[in-house]
């Protein structure tokens, strides 16, 4: 799983495309969640373009690795990654949130190729990922399960029930990411209802805990590699990220949690992101 400099450059280029898609999609839709989509982009790109065993030509391949985007409002990031991976045409991205589109505001596993779990009601994704990981063990399969959670989402009690269960069942085939950008819709997570110290809480529940820079591909891959090699317990990777990453006027600004850019703002964002 080691990563070369050439691969880092390739992933960086894909991530730039994904971020440009996120801006175009939300601007075209006039709604959506750009901030948290931009913050988790590098995590998703690393998983789909370097780590996960998937086949875009056969989205339901039984042996595939699974991903649960528990922070379902970041669907634009997932859709853009899936499109760039080849699950459906890139041109379809501009149908985000439109009537009859396969790309609704939150992921729908029954409509969108490549989506492994319908999400959007925060706090539920880790439980679903647990079920997938348990199923793999019961079936003697070697696929791995990844879940991506928001840090504000950790205020949901069900997350900690799922954390307790994952540890109890020794789900070492499960890796959860926390997109730790420090902001949620109502403001800084520390002011709304602090889930800190996140690492200590997961350790108390019996998890292996890894800290990474969520915008450094080498660090993300290092964390995943350590998670894969950890046996007997699940791993959580706490990824320090920046909400709105890549767009200067969106970075660390809570207003961009659930607000789409205007066309003029989109042009400014695209210019900042580069070709």
UniProtKB/TrEMBL annotation:
GO molecular function terms listed in the Swiss-Prot or TrEMBL record: metal ion binding; transferase activity
Q: Where in the numbering of this chain does the Transketolase N-terminal domain appear? A: 14-274
Q: Name one Pfam family in it.
A: Transketolase_N
Q: Family per UniProt?
A: Belongs to the transketolase family.
- Protein name in UniProt: Transketolase subunit A
Record InterPro entries: THDP-binding (IPR029061), Transketolase_CS (IPR049557), Transketolase_N (IPR005474)
This protein's cofactor list reads: thiamine diphosphate
Gene3D superfamilies in the cross-refs: 3.40.50.970
Look up the coiled coil feature and give its residue ranges: none
Q: Which PROSITE patterns match?
A: TRANSKETOLASE_1
**Entry's SUPFAM superfamilies?**
Thiamin diphosphate-binding fold (THDP-binding)
What keywords appear on the UniProt entry? Metal-binding, Thiamine pyrophosphate, Transferase
Q: Which organism is it from?
A: Thermosediminibacter litoriperuensis
């Amino acid at each position: 799983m080691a990563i070369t400099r050439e691969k880092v450059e390739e992933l960086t280029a894909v991530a730039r495309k994904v971020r440009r898609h996120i801006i175009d999609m939300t601007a075209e839709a006039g709604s959506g969640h750009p901030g948290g989509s931009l913050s988790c982009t590098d995590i998703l790109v690393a998983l789909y373009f370097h780590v996960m065993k998937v086949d875009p030509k056969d989205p339901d391949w039984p042996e595939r690795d699974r991903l649960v985007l528990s922070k379902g409002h970041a669907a634009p990031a997932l859709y853009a990654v899936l499109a760039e991976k080849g699950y459906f045409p890139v041109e379809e991205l501009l149908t985000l949130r439109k009537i009859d589109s396969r790309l609704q505001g939150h992921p729908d596993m029954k409509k969108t190729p490549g989506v492994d779990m319908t999400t959007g009601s925060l706090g539920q994704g880790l439980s679903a990922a647990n079920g997938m990981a348990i199923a793999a063990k019961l079936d003697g399969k070697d696929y791995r399960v990844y879940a991506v959670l928001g840090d504000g989402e950790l205020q949901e009690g069900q997350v900690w029930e799922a954390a307790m269960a994952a540890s109890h069942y020794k789900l070492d085939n499960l890796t959860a990411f926390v997109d730790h950008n420090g902001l949620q819709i109502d403001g800084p997570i520390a002011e709304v209802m602090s889930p800190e110290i996140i690492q200590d809480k997961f350790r108390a529940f019996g998890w292996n805990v890894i800290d990474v820079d969520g915008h450094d591909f080498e660090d993300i891959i290092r964390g995943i590699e350590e998670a894969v090699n950890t046996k007997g317990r699940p791993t959580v990777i706490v990824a320090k990220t920046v909400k709105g990453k890549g767009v200067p006027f969106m970075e660390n600004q809570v207003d961009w949690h659930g607000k789409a850019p205007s066309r003029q703002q989109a042009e400014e964002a695209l210019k900042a992101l580069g070709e």
